[in-house]
Amino acid sequence: MSKLPEGFFIGAATAAHQVEGNNVHSDYWAMEHMEYTSFNEPSLDAVDHYNRYEEDIRLMADAGLNAYRFSIEWARIEPEQGRFDEAEIEHYRKVLTCCRENGLEPIVTMHHFTSPKWLIANGGWENEDTIDAFAKYCAYVVEKLGDQLNYVCTINEANMRLQIAAISKRFMKQMQADQAKAAAKDSKSNVESSVQVGINMENPMMERMKKQAMENMQIFGTPQPNVFVSMCTPEGDIMVMRAHQAAKAAMKAVKPELKIGLTLSLHDFQVVEGGEDAAAKEWDDEFLHYLPYIQDDDFFGLQNYTRTLIGPDGSLPNPEGSEATQMGYEFYPQALGHVIRTVHEKLSIPIMVTENGVATSDDSRRVAFIQEALKGVEDCIADGIPVVGYMYWSLLDNFEWQKGFSMTFGLIAVDRSTQTRMPKESLKVLGGYTKD
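Predicted structure:
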């Protein structure tokens, strides 16, 4: 029987670009269609959630879920700088209304990795003007849809850019050290699996870099566009926090009672003897240095998928004999409870698990993952930690960024030749937590 309190949110999460399809005004759409792209395949229609959201929301409601975290796509709302699309606002109003009619609390994310193409052409997430542009977009959405909103996440995984910068540096160092082709291939897999997003790091990408830079120049006006999921400077890292704060202020000016937070991608760092200093630095980079910018938020969006073992020289490979997910990192649902406790030591505001899940073709392992992860949540709540919700990632098998459609995180499978939905047992199991 569930030990979750009354009013606890049990839901699933999606990101607009990964499920809606035809996000043609975004930076990712442009990058997917480059000749020298780093993407395994383009998103195209994705899983057509843009047209099939009613069916998907009903499936959640029928299973017992009571919340849905999804993102509003900035590139749809503002396809050209300063021009807002009323038809797209109306689309998202219909999605919000559908959630309400089906008893689901909508938890809206204003930016989930993708940006309007024009924003990137203007300098993207290293340009100070982005702060004001993002705040204006957020204020516009709340002016139009605020009557339907209670919970808003400004930016998804605001620390992802720093994580990408760190693994890119590690990858380059390994590539320089590993002369043999096989050794380089092994190092690739270790680096890729240390970050909780679908990226490709491989030799062909390195060989294409010059041609890719030329193509970027044609599309974005710069050889190295500052998209959200790319390497960043320390200043760019903090600029994202300032964008969060500016957006929060702009939205609160429209609707003061709106509950606003952001989300961070967090690992359960576990120390192997001698790794204490390295682990402390990793945790500071991933979480602690953001505290001044989020400690006054209404809630914190915690996103976790696995643990990372830390030795004297940094992160270590998965333990020998451990179960690996399709993404390459360790199957370790116990990480969620550990991270909730570690966050709560420094942050006293309510915590919402805005993403937690597993990429696997074996749904029985997904069920086991959910059950173990939620046991950790229940134990945290029993110890007085204010956890207010759990959003499984993801609702649907979808477009995992550069990895394409090869990763299956979903509670619902999709036959993309027909877009037919096939709910899995894990959807029923998750929904059961609201019925006990």
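Summary: The chain has a mean pLDDT of 93.
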